[in-house]
Amino acid sequence: MRFVVISLLFNVYWFSAALGPPSFQWLMVAMLLGAILYDRSVMWAMAVLTPVGLIGDSLLLHTQWLAVDTEYVVMPLWLLLLWLGFCSFVWLMRDLILARAFWFMAALGSLGGASSYWAGERLGVLSFPQSLWVTGAVLIGVWLVYSIFLINLMQWLQHQLRARSIATRREP
């Protein structure tokens, strides 16, 4: 049940970014705060996991694999919020993700991540300056790298938080 609820909430979050920038950014911020209230370790996940996507998507934007209509310095605010929300989602789903075979989850992340950009392109929130097929292949490869990094970072962060929790319980 938790998987279904969190997945539905993330889809509301994603559509808020894809259909409403900037009109739904307040909803995205409110949902991020809700995720933090639900599980405070989400803050750690945001800090550790989000830079992977921010750096990667900044490179995709600046090398013109992706294009958006809005003005931005590094990336549009809605895309930054989307990465914060995505990393919160995967963190809240970490038990399910980390319990599955690594390469299966990396492949699933590769296809799922790339398809979300294709959906964003279909909805008009971004565009592909290069051909659809070439951009699709690049995005699948980029998302394979993202997925590998994110899964490894989640494993590392989960270990760090557990070790910290154990050490805190031992202190008098």
UniProtKB/TrEMBL annotation:
Superkingdom to which the source organism belongs: Bacteria
InterPro entries registered for this protein in UniProt: DUF2878
TM region positions: 12-35, 42-61, 73-92, 101-120, 132-154
Keyword list, A-Z: Membrane, Transmembrane, Transmembrane helix
Protein name as catalogued: DUF2878 domain-containing protein
